[in-house]
Amino acid sequence: MISPPPPGAEAGAAPQPVRPGHGEFEAVAPYYDVLMASVPYRRWVDYVERLLARTRVRPARVLDLACGTGKVGSELRRRGYRVVGADLSFPMACRCAEQDPPLAAAVMDAACLGLREESLDLVVCLYDSLNYVLDPAGLRECFRRLAAALRPGGAFVFDLNAPRALRLGLFTQSNLHSLGPLLYRWQAHWEEARGLCRVDMWFRWRGEGGPAEFTEVHYQRAYEEPEVQGWLREAGFRTVAGYDAYTFRPVTALSDRMYFVAQKGTTP
Prior knowledge:
Layout: H1 32-35, H2 41-55, E1 61-65, H3 71-78, E2 82-87, H4 90-94, E3 105-107, E4 120-125, H5 136-149, E5 150-161, H6 163-167, E6 173-174, E7 182-191, E8 196-205, E9 212-221, H7 225-235, E10 237-244, E11 257-264
Parallel strand pairs: 1-2, 1-4, 2-3, 4-5
Antiparallel strand pairs: 5-11, 6-7, 7-8, 8-9, 10-11
Helix pairs in contact: 2-3, 5-7
């Protein structure tokens, strides 16, 4: 018998937003790769390489920021890049060593990165990870520090959930009829006044070592394309482009996911 989600998963008083990473991607970390088994990581990296072809960047040293369990970074390593990962969740970063090839990863907060100046050619940050930076000042500081860490001509490629996706309840989903080992039910709650989406997540693991039930509460902030582009230029990126995800078309009001490519100038 499948236990129902706990009280409050669909309604009730909302907890106050917490600093990103407090309880997010911790309980789910051992099961995350099962949860994301259908995600086309290789096609994501194909798209990143097509974007880079437009910038003429030929990166060697790469940072996979908010790397999670390291799937993207591992795929980049497979293609010959020298990659390290960084993630705020210690349990997620620990699992990077289990990838093939393994990815070396550090625990690091995107809003207060400690990186050597001009030490990287490319930074990638995928799967709406920067929506988890809830404070716009923190996102602007992230951009500033990444610009400093990139060598002249280096690039920063990342995606964000568009405001439309968060307003329409992108995260409200479940797989309670699945025959797989991990069941989940998520309920999204949009707060227009603050531009925040709270997602109450319930999971049940019934694979090896199970059964086990656990919950997580995640928050994402909606960011508009023009403000993101402005903050990137303010941080010191010379050229900035935004695309409707997995295309080369511009972002529109109907976009659910936005990709950005920001390139650092080659001269001061």
